[in-house]
Amino acid sequence: MNQSGLPDWRDSLPWPGAETHKHARGRLGVVSGKATQTGAARLAARAGLRIGAGLVRILCPPDAAPVIGPAIEGIMLTPFGSPEALAEAAGGMDAVVVGPAAGVNEMTRDNVRALAFTGAALVVDADGLTAFEHWPEGLFEALDRDDVLTPHEGEFRRLFPGLLEAGRQPAAVEASRRAGAVVVLKGPATVIAAPDGRLAVNDNGTPWLATAGTGDVLAGMIGGLVAQRMDSFDAARAAVWMHAEAARGFGPGLIAEDLPGRLPAVLAALYEQAG
Amino acid sequence: MNQSGLPDWRDSLPWPGAETHKHARGRLGVVSGKATQTGAARLAARAGLRIGAGLVRILCPPDAAPVIGPAIEGIMLTPFGSPEALAEAAGGMDAVVVGPAAGVNEMTRDNVRALAFTGAALVVDADGLTAFEHWPEGLFEALDRDDVLTPHEGEFRRLFPGLLEAGRQPAAVEASRRAGAVVVLKGPATVIAAPDGRLAVNDNGTPWLATAGTGDVLAGMIGGLVAQRMDSFDAARAAVWMHAEAARGFGPGLIAEDLPGRLPAVLAALYEQAG
Amino acid sequence: MNQSGLPDWRDSLPWPGAETHKHARGRLGVVSGKATQTGAARLAARAGLRIGAGLVRILCPPDAAPVIGPAIEGIMLTPFGSPEALAEAAGGMDAVVVGPAAGVNEMTRDNVRALAFTGAALVVDADGLTAFEHWPEGLFEALDRDDVLTPHEGEFRRLFPGLLEAGRQPAAVEASRRAGAVVVLKGPATVIAAPDGRLAVNDNGTPWLATAGTGDVLAGMIGGLVAQRMDSFDAARAAVWMHAEAARGFGPGLIAEDLPGRLPAVLAALYEQAG
Amino acid sequence: MNQSGLPDWRDSLPWPGAETHKHARGRLGVVSGKATQTGAARLAARAGLRIGAGLVRILCPPDAAPVIGPAIEGIMLTPFGSPEALAEAAGGMDAVVVGPAAGVNEMTRDNVRALAFTGAALVVDADGLTAFEHWPEGLFEALDRDDVLTPHEGEFRRLFPGLLEAGRQPAAVEASRRAGAVVVLKGPATVIAAPDGRLAVNDNGTPWLATAGTGDVLAGMIGGLVAQRMDSFDAARAAVWMHAEAARGFGPGLIAEDLPGRLPAVLAALYEQAG
Fold it and tell me: Which CATH number is associated with domain D22-147+211-267?
């Protein structure tokens, strides 16, 4: 991930100690889309749980609960009926992922902004970004420096028109400065930029990740690390690297559902090195 | 698959490159049957996703959505209430599979014809074929040369009465000419014919495929390759071969649900050869 | 299974040939219990599919369909609203399993009797037996010699009071004669008796099978073999042996859900011997 | 688990014998939370089934049944509409787990107390403990010496305020005396105390268990052993040790859903030693 070839975020990965209990290990919320669009939240939630968040809760519109319920066990579920109720439900969270399959509409904007004023760090992905295409300041003014935006190039162009013409790295740096949050510009060589000027380019990307739902998994992984109080810039770098590492080990035929189940092997290798 | 023993479609398999993203990799739609008949669509969709379509969306009658929802994650879901709504939902697709568990009725005919006039290549299977038993021209006039029909012998006889008496290969050639589409005549030695006269006979067939749902998986695999812009004749040949290869490696006790999960190993072997 | 130690049913196992298609391979129906009691039918159906029935269809009360739907793919589903509708739905079946989680009541009696007058061979298990405790002739008069009853000792005592006092083998012989059907008296050494006097005692029993749902799996396995036109006495012997073999290979911690997935290995070993 | 390093509960583990049938092997009930909170019960039930209870039944509020139904097969399901109905449904059980995701409210108190007056041994966990924070005697007076309480430190403090100041071991001893039941005080070194003064400290704890749902799995494991008529103190010690052993073998990335599937390997190793 840097010149030495060794990921320098490795030493700040959050491993549980003997005294760690599930609450202390970090609480992650994941906001689900409507009843027909719940798979993205389940992917993100499972990824967040696998990467070490001690408690993961899907926050969903009430009519989505019967769809999600049969498909989860260790993940918890809370329906919410309004942005205020969402913010209240997110009150006890360390981090929240919002945006996957959320819909590009006013409700998504309201939900993102309601969450931004809780104490939880946000990971804003997908529709959570595009919903602010015509009102980017409505997003940026709500963000803190520990929040993370995870656009692919299309989403990036909508939020930061013209910026990519300067190149991906300068674009990410400037976007992070404007947003006041960590920006993960996804692509073959994902760029991660922090508002304080830190910049990293991921070097283990793989084409096998070009399949639906892998972005949801990545958002859940970042959220899961941030929930464990890892620095958001390091969390984003670590998650991007592990996400690609999990995919590379699988190769052709990979689908997003495979990724969370491959995290234990990736984590175990890192844990042994941390030895 | 041909005289040399090496599949000559191997060089045209679509592998993602460093710059490939999920939309570019191909978008596949799969039309589900009614609420009690959704398993076929899920098998086809998962197969299409495994074989490399970047985005796969099940298009379903509204009352089927709560049944499908809990069983999918990376696969997306759009309910439709009319043939027009189906065609609109399929607007952004590169290929659409229609027919598995669709029902032999007017709605299926309307759905197939509505889809035929979108830009998506069609894979018409099962009930999507039988529904035109008494009006084959209603199907044929709607087809393009990149569309694919996948009848077993019973379905073939209904659409092309008398043709099989000339033998399977001449029958497939003539059927393809009449339909103006690729025809996959399934059986122990599946015959694939294109309207331009190309003809191939698959040689790795296996009796373990004689179990419910394997045809749905095959339709999804063909659709998944066509969605990646592989030539439809080559896509059909490649899918038929890989489908049988996945089954042969399993042997006795195979059920259709096993097949999508075995595609990664089949793909990996082909990818290494493509080296 | 007999003196030589080699199962003499081995040579009559139904293996598909090059020309076999799914319909020819055998069609199995499984009758589900009510909406809260559908798991037994799903276990039986999956076992029947794994053991080689080409088509397996669960027949269920209408309100059970939304529960079963999300959990099946290659297995088909038909709701029925009356014994007459059930018999009609079973019309195309080669064999039907009835009884698991069916309920001990008049509807179960009506369903069993309606099925008995279709052309399908019956496997009557669990509540399908107990429901006739006070009217055994209502069951026996409806049975044919290719039907199979699969009682454990408690169910056996209810249908054949007093018979077990003579010992398990004579009891099974007499029960089979009275019922006019194959009787599988389950236990540590399962006894299988046919109305023509054939008798076998299974010798690979294992205590790990003493867990909920294993009887449902066995009923599905017998049904799956009978659907493939294996002689019912041989089918029962073969299924009982394979069922135990699958369990023995697993050992402690076995649950019924494990069994269908272990059948491929058991079948493969038999297939190789059949060489 | 004791000075010799060999678990002295090993010899009292319940293994099925040739004559054991599923009813004799032990019947376990697990009380589910409301419709959005059913995952905990499913985890506990599956764990109880894996560890050897012959029959496991989830007892659930009526509106939770459609959520649980699609996710279970060998596990049975009975809806209940009142504490009286719950007690009646639990009538045939050897042990019942109550508390996971139950809600901290009067209904939970009523359910626990209704169950306490059936013949089933209770495992009271999570909300089943916290619900009695302001009325601990309402819980204690209902308990028998074969019942088990499984608090983590937070739950322990609510039921036994001040007791932990004396240290974990004396606190557990005194709590067990007051409650008149076995107390499992969870933590890095879980303490197990019986009302007759027996005391044990588990020594194979692992931080990987600090993830949501592992407590539900443990409750189900204890319940599964108690249902098999293992002494409750020994059952608690055995379950705590096996639970940690299953987790240690997995390592980083463990989630609660992994644990039941790892029990067969843990059980097999113990079974071989039991030789």
Answer: 3.40.1190.20
